[in-house]
Amino acid sequence: MSIATPTQNPQSYLAAQERWRPVEIVFWLAALLPFVLFPDYLTLASQIAITGLFALSLDLILGYAGIVSLGHAAFFGIGAYTAGVLTKYGWGEPITGLLISAAVAALAGYLSSLVIARFRHLALIMITLGLGLLLHEIANSAHWLTGGSDGLQGMQVWPLLGMFKFDLYGYTAYTYSLIVLLIVFVMARRLIHSPFGLALRGIRENWTRMPAIGANRQAHIRKIYTIAAAMAGVAGALLAQTVGTVSLEAISFGRSADVLVMLVLGGAGRLYGGIVGAMIFMIARDQFSGIAPQYWYFWIGLLLIAVVMLLPNGVLGGLSALINRWRSRS
Amino acid sequence: MSSIALATRGLVKNFGSLTVARDIEITLPTGVRYALIGPNGAGKTTLINLMTGMLPPDGGQIMLGGEDVTVLKPEERVRRGLARTFQINTLFPGLNALEAVTLAVCERRQIAGTFWSRLSSERDAIEEAYDILKRLRLGDSCYQPTRELPYGRQRLLEIALALASRPKVLLLDEPAAGVPLEESGDIFEAVAELSGDITVLFIEHDMQVVFRFASHIIVMVGGAIFAQGSPQEIAADPRVREVYLGKRHHG
Amino acid sequence: MIAPIAGVLFDGIAYGMLLFLLSVGLSVTLGLMNFVNLAHCAFAMLGGYVTVTLMNSYGWPFFATLPVAFVAAGAASVVLERTLYRRLYRASDLDQVLLTIGIVFVSVAVAAYLYGTTVQPISVPDYLRGSISVLGVNLARYRLFLVLVAAVITVVLIYGVEHTRFGAQVRAAVDNQRMARGLGINVDWTFAVAFALGSGLAGLGGALAIEIVGLDPYFGFTYLIFVLIVVSVGGLGSIGGSLAAAILIGIADITGKYYLPDLGAFLIYLVMVGVLMWRPTGLFGRR
């Protein structure tokens, strides 16, 4: 963040805030490295990109608008099942599948936003949790549609653009996921730097003041909740299409909790927080895949306690504080 | 006869068995500077909360420029020109002053829901916000996060946020609360410089300030209007003297 | 036809009583400090493991372990309250959620490390086994015992809150913290004691739950959801509300399992979402 001089023109100050920074360009170029450096890990890289997209969607409602959700996997799952069912029943074209999934998730997001926007604090946490669990149970019992606990089998995803088959090495999968992530990221970035993005930060910073400046908080929340649901739906659809199956895990409480951990670990309220958090979380989980899941959660638990007590703005927040301190010293 | 900017008719509010507003009848003619005084717990802030819609009344009506706004939401009243400030800073700690006031301007212009355009491309809104900040002498500190601003400047930002909605009626809840006595003059100077079209009602404990800036004084005691009149009338009223003027500069 | 329905109803009430013991402490502390303590059921799990250890490794009788489970859970909660929780009283909901979920994760891992992931068996005294038949309805003795214990605790709690000095302090602090402080009530101390008592009750609930629902390292998560449902349906800070909600949820869950097994937990989630949409502050909530 640049420190502005008092004489700076306010408009150019705001324009400077919106400009792409060199480190961002480096970040996206570095996202190409797995193709050359870790070709064996492209499947993992693809899953990281998908999960990063999911975390980005949570960041919009949690990091920017301050809505704590314990049920965000609902929209991821709806996207995944929509894409999966479309493919299974004869429409395997990925890109239209992605768009249809986004639309279905957005519709579900809009409908739940009508309820969500009325709640705060514990009741909000409970209602997001409750709606998430409810959808999980529906997916579980609608065996005829979702395959229930056996997962959705028999998906036939057509080649991307009619040319690129989804290969075993994840080459197509990672290319596809990365491009979709970048496109959605650019849109989210644009949103954050729009007047609406400012209004969201206003809601996060002071819920009480917003109506006193003439803001309709609930309308803002309905809008961002719908947008974030659509994004989560895209992430879910990507997972379904690249993996070729959908399990109940896609819509589970575990997934909602994991994405929250990732976002907070990376740094909520920062565009890259979710992506960085997803990278750290998923690479660590891959490296420690040998250990039993309960011990994996021991470290996650300790990490959460440590982040809350010591690093309130996540890894990226800690890094930027370090850089600022270093700059002011030199 | 001048037009009426804001009026209440028989406003009532109870908290359980405690009546905090009892048949409040207030009429604010356009462009006046009214002071609302009374001991702590008299119901002054409650009255502002009722007028702005942050508390629903149990009875009575609120008229804004001739329109009954009693059932409107707070933000709908703001859009019709009724703005307020808060006794305890109610700001956006993580936004800087420029962002905060620009947000308020965007809300008034109904463009705060726009998510496809860049904020920096909203030139007019930014200019307008910056003008308000300069008028309140906040121009040179408008890039600093609100939480880092000195307290006195945060009080000014309270007023700047209210002004961004272009109010016809401005309700100021102890605008100089907590500010050292020698600085509170600056805040009231800023209020005095406001356009004559804006109707102002302010709560204040310092009687010197009240007598200097108010054209009319309303005294509340125990949830009811106790007396109202010109500063001279109020100063001469022995009952007011008894309940209120005896104690100054508390809480 | 009546007998099976009465039997299901009885099981539901017994299960509800268990949920009440597990959740009443959370309801009070949430109402008191507005602290979202998702680790509440980790204390219940601790109580459960204390009972298991004392019975299986040291040969203690079942009843003797119950007070220890109560005290151990209460003491552990005070340690956490003094070291971690108190620093986050003014923090955001999110920070509280994250910290306490972190504690649950750690508790899962520690329990799995010490006891393995299998369900822990205990053997309750003979006279609590089997069932008695009343008017053709089979009532399991242990469930009857559970209803009795919960009824006694409810009476003690309601008496304590309504008629003791400490109860009056808790009520004052829940109603209006600032005013309570103004009246010279030591709110921090009141909270610490209420917190310890609430967690102790959870520990007791955890010990009593083993016979009905079993005990494994994931207890802190599995029952967290039930407890949160009870608290949000019943309303914060209301003992009567928690009791009513717990019985409602208990009956809904058991009825669902008997008559609509395909729906799983669907029914209780539906009850929760429905109640919250109808009354966001719960059935007996005040805020």
Describe the secondary-structure layout.
The complex is a heterotrimer of chains A (330), B (251) and C (287).
Chain A: H1 10-18, H2 22-30, H3 33-37, H4 42-64, H5 73-88, H6 94-116, H7 121-141, H8 143-146, H9 171-192, H10 195-205, H11 209-212, H12 217-243, H13 253-266, H14 273-287, H15 293-310, H16 314-329
Helix pairs in contact in A: 4-9, 4-12, 4-13, 4-14, 5-6, 5-12, 6-12, 9-12, 10-12, 13-14, 13-16
Chain B: E1 4-15, E2 18-29, E3 33-37, H1 44-52, E4 59-64, E5 67-68, H2 74-79, E6 82-84, H3 97-108, H4 123-135, H5 151-163, E7 169-173, H6 181-192, E8 199-203, H7 207-213, E9 216-221, E10 224-229, H8 231-236, H9 238-245
Parallel strand pairs in B: 3-8, 3-9, 6-7, 7-8
Antiparallel strand pairs in B: 1-2, 1-4, 4-5, 9-10
Helix pairs in contact in B: 3-4, 3-5, 5-6
Chain C: H1 2-33, H2 40-58, H3 62-83, H4 93-115, E1 131-134, E2 137-140, H5 141-163, H6 165-175, H7 177-182, H8 187-213, H9 219-234, H10 239-259, H11 266-278
Antiparallel strand pairs in C: 1-2
Helix pairs in contact in C: 1-5, 1-6, 1-8, 1-9, 1-10, 2-3, 2-4, 2-8, 2-9, 3-8, 5-6, 6-8, 9-10, 9-11, 10-11
How does this structure look, described?
The complex is a heterotrimer of chains A (330), B (251) and C (287). With 330 residues, chain A is mostly helical. Chain A has a domain at 33-252. In chain A, 72% of the residues lie in helices and 0% in strands. Chain A has 16 helices and no strands. In chain A, helix 4 crosses helix 13 and helix 9 runs antiparallel to helix 12. The mean pLDDT of chain A is 90. Chain B is α/β, with parallel strands linked by helices and 251 residues long. Chain B is built from nine helices and ten strands. Chain C is an all-alpha fold and 287 residues long. Chain C is globular. Chain C has helices at 2-33, 40-58, 62-83, 93-115, 141-163, 165-175, 177-182, 187-213, 219-234, 239-259, 266-278; strands at residues 131-134, 137-140. Chain C has a single domain, classed as ABC transporter involved in vitamin B12 uptake, BtuC, CATH 1.10.3470. The chains are: A mainly alpha (330), B alpha/beta (251), C mainly alpha (287). At the A-B interface, helix 1, helix 10, helix 11 and helix 12 of A face helix 2, helix 3 and helix 4 of B.
Helix fraction bin of chain A: over 70%
Described by the principal axes of the CA atoms, the overall outline of chain A is globular
Shape of chain B: globular
For the largest interface, the chains and their residue counts are: A-B, 40 and 51 residues
Largest sheet of chain B: 6 strands, mixed
What is the tally of beta strands of chain B? 10
Please give the radius of gyration of chain A in angstroms: 20 Å
